[in-house]
């Protein structure tokens, strides 16, 4: 992808030959890893200060594991449980159709989970849930329906789950990453959420609202 920005115009050129033009501005809301890898080429190139802000972050893996059962294996009041295992954080979202437990895994634990096959993941999930819920693994296995894993590190064009500031980088690098360029390029994404909740999905949403407000003020 190539992003051409000049004057008060911006043009996006896609690899399949399509192009889109914006008469005023564009919001760059892609995963930070895509900018670090150079998946988007900017013409003219981004200034050194913006490149430094982009490179100030480390990208970490994040994975979600969904495990479905014939019926809930947890108390109706349960919403979240945590322990020190590999699948250390479990959520139990309410559902009218399926009983699904959801594990959220990050950093080194996510790398370990991403390397497992489906059978190993199911076995690990049932073993750790059995410990958390005070049940036998064989009992959970009888009610188990399916297991599904989503790894953001392995998703094309995503390459990771969240960004953290590298040691020694400036404290204001999130603000520097979020700062608009020439009132033409605006930036959103969880890494730019300097005034809300970085490293979270709601922080990414809030950064989009912030970029939209910046555009409104520009107009």
From TrEMBL:
Pfam families: Amino_oxidase
Gene Ontology molecular function: any one: oxidoreductase activity
Organism: Pyrodinium bahamense
PANTHER family for this protein: FLAVIN MONOAMINE OXIDASE (PTHR10742), LYSINE-SPECIFIC HISTONE DEMETHYLASE 2 (PTHR10742:SF410)
Family annotation (SUPFAM superfamilies): FAD-linked reductases, C-terminal domain (SSF54373), FAD/NAD(P)-binding domain (SSF51905)
The organism's place on the tree of life at top rank: Eukaryota
Gene3D superfamilies, A to Z: FAD/NAD(P)-binding domain
Domain Amine oxidase: 9-215
Protein name: Amine oxidase domain-containing protein
